[in-house]
Every structure is written in C-alpha cells, then in structure tokens.
Amino acid sequence: MAPEKLALASSNHTPVTKFILLGFSDYPELQELLFGTFLTSMTVAGNLGMMPLICTDSGLHSPMYFFLGVLSFLDICYSSVVTPKLLVNFLASDKPISVDGCVVQLTFFVVHVTAESFLLASMVYDCFVPICQPLHYGSVMTQGTCLQLVAASYAFGGANSAIQTGNVFALPFCGPNRVTHYSCDIPPLFHLACADTARAETVLYAFSALVTLLPTVVILISYSLVLVAIGKMHSTAGREKALSTCASHFLVVAIFYGTVVFTYVQPHGSNDQSVTNGQVVSVFYTVVIPMLNPFKYSLRNNKVKFARQRKLQASIFPRMRPASLSVG
Questions:
Q1: Distance separating alpha carbons of residues 233 and 88, to the nearest angstrom
Q2: Average per-residue pLDDT in the chain?
Q3: What structural domains and CATH numbers belong to the chain?
Q4: SS (H, E, C) the chain
Q5: For residues 251 and 296, is the Cβ–Cβ distance under 8 A?
Q6: What is the rounded CA–CA span in Å between residue 266 and residue 54?
Q7: Do the beta carbons of residue 127 and residue 222 sit within 8 Å?
Q8: Window from 1-5, 107-111, 220-224 with minimum mean pLDDT
Q9: CA–CA dist 212, 222 (Å, integer)
Q10: Is residue 166 a contact partner of residue 186, using CB atoms and an 8 Å limit?
Q11: Average pLDDT of the residues in 46-69
Q12: Highest-pLDDT range among 81-90, 161-170, 186-195, 283-292
C-alpha cells in the first residue's frame, strides 16, 4: 500500500458519502463542444429508430436483425447510464454523485457493456453459420437459440457486474473523493481507496480478461472459418457480399474490444497522463461506438433502407381504402 494511503487509513476512518466527478473540467475551452457531442449521443437517433423498425417490418424478422435490435437496445442502455449525469455536470459548478448513485451507475454500466461483448460474439456466430453451414442455418439459428444467446449475454453481464461492483465497493473510501473521470469507472475509483488495491486490481484484470477472452476466441475462430469458406467460393459476387457483411462487424468489434482492453485489462499507472488517457479512450465505447453501430450495421443494409422507405412512404402516403357502398 502507498505510504500516503496507510497514513490516511490510520488517521481518518470517516467513510466517503459522495464522490466528485471531475470529468473534463481540466479542459474548459472544450466544454461547449463536449456538451454538444454528448447531447447528440443521448438521442442515438439511429438506435432509437432501429428497434421499432425491426419489430414492425416482417421483412426484418430474422436472426441477424433480431440481434441488431438487441444491439441498439444495449447501446442506448449503457450510453444512457453515463451521459445524463455527464450533461448535468457540464452545466454545474459542483459535480457530486452519492456513493449509492455511483454503485448503481457502475452496476448497470458493467451489465450492458459485458452483455454487448457476448452479443457481438453471437452476431459473429450468426454470420458464420449461413456462410459455412448454409443448409443447417434454419435449424441452428432458431428463435429459441437467439433468445438463449441474448439471455446468456445478460447472464454473463449480471455475473460480471456483481463481481466487479462488489470488488470495488468492498474497499474503504475514507479520504479523497475527487474522481478524475466523468463517470464512476473502476480504475479511477481504485486510486481513491484508502487500502491496498493489489488484490482488487487482480480481480478486475482477471474477470475483465475472461469476459473479453471468451467472446474473442469465438470471434477469431468464426472469422477464420468464414475467411476459409469465402476463399473457396467460386462466385465473385458471393465473396464480395460475404466480405461486406463481415467487414462492418469486424470494424465495430475491433474498436469495442480494443477500447475495453485498454481501459480494464492492461495495468494502469497512477500518473495523471494514464488516467486522462483512460478517460479519453472510454469516450469511444460510451459515445462513439453507440453512434457508429447503426451506420455500420444497419443504415448501409439494403433491407433496412427499403424497410425505412416503406415506413416513410406509408406515413406520408397512407394507403387509400375504397369507400364503402351502402345499398338503399
């Protein structure tokens, strides 16, 4: 344990009742730009539009679009857990959050981020089956299978959230309460604990690596088999279609897992530069990825475009019904 933490723990046992989220207060010149960026992310218009479109259009009732709808829901959830408080803090001079509020924020954030990690692996599996086992797709990717994969994603999310949140708040917080982050994230909270955090950090790295490694193995194996299958295709059009489908997914997967690994898996120093870098990187998976996912997955998809056009035309030009005839 650091000497200053030992001294603090021995001289002050008053528990912290609230934290101060410093956020981007060190960059006052960027406050307006950041406020506008995060305010835009609150709407996540593409995600909000995708869910009802997928539910109401019969042409989109397939496993691929079912997973896209769930992905949109997850993006909205974990972005909304963090962004409202951040927007309030941009306008407030004091930026407090209670310990209970911090627990709730961290709990729901980890649930949805972990669930998205496993959902992305499920989506790669859904990409793998029609390319590598096209004759078995209908029997493998049934409605029950899709629901089970989503339920499993949330089960992993709930388990990881319970472990990680309990791991953090089992530590005593009795000294500084200024969090060098815009949300209650795990690494900056470790810096405020007035106890040895070595064991807690080991738990963080181990379970973060586990929930990252399992989906990554599924994704790498699936993509390897998909690339082999694409290489054996004789049709150029078929290869291009398969590669286009996988390329958008691979880009989002790479950004998502790259930022998560940088934030939670690699060891962190206590210097300000390390903390600032972690804060900037976390913006990608709380703001940038939720905004990009609809464009990468959905808005470039012809079926989604046609479904959106049909809904728009139906709302502007409702189908005219023939007038009923009355017989006297």
A1: 54
A2: 78
A3: 3-302 (1.20.1070.10)
A4: CCHHHHHHHHHCCCCCCEEEECCCCCCHHHHHHHHHHHHHHHHCHHHHHHHHHHHHCHHHCCHHHHHHHHHHHHHHHHHHHHHHHHHHHHHCCCCEEEHHHHHHHHHHHHHHHHHHHHHHHHHHHHHHHHHHCHHHHHHHCCHHHHHHHHHHHHHHHHHHHHHHHHHHHCCCCCCCCEECCCCCCHHHHHCCCCCCCHHHHHHHHHHHHHHHHHHHHHHHHHHHHHHHHHHCCCCHHHHHHHHHHHHHHHHHHHHHHHHHHHHHHCCCCCCHHHHHHHHHHHHHHHHHHHHHHHHHHHHCCHHHHHHHHHHHHHHHCCCCCCCCCCCC
A5: yes
A6: 38
A7: yes
A8: 1-5
A9: 16
A10: no
A11: 81
A12: 161-170
207-216 pLDDT tens trace: 988 888 888 8
Per-residue pLDDT, averaged over 125-129, amounts to 88
Q: What is the per-residue pLDDT for 298? A: 61
